[in-house]
Each structure stands twice: as C-alpha cells, then as structure tokens.
Write a structure and sequence with these properties.
Length: about 60
C-alpha cells in the first residue's frame, strides 16, 4: 500500500494497493487526511489477512 499526496488539487490523496504476482493495481482517492486514515483502517484487516495467506500458500510454479 502506498499513499501519494498532492497540493492544491482535490482529491489530495491517492492510495495504491498492489496485489498478487501479476501486479494488479487498485487505486482509491481521498479528499483529506482523515479520509485516508479511514480507508487504511478499513483495509488493514483484509490486507493483513491476504498477506498472511500469500506467505503460507505454496506457489503453483514450484517457487520459481
């Protein structure tokens, strides 16, 4: 998860969530910092669960 900030434009924040081995990118936008914090709080449990599952699941290609 990466958060980007820009000045003088709304939305002021872009939140990129990059997932899986294919590099899928999901971007959400937030107008202000409290909105960013709300998104992170909502996403954190799911992101942590997915990361733990990815670490514990053997790769289909034998790890190559």
């Amino acid at each position: 998860m990466t958060v980007y900030h820009r000045y003088r434009k709304v939305p002021r924040f872009a939140i990129d969530l990059i997932g899986n081995e294919g590099g899928t990118l999901f971007t959400a936008y937030a107008a202000e910092l409290p909105d960013v914090m709300d998104l992170i709080a909502r996403w954190a449990p799911a992101v942590q669960s997915l990361a733990a599952a990815a670490r514990s699941t053997p790769r289909q290609d034998g790890g190559r």
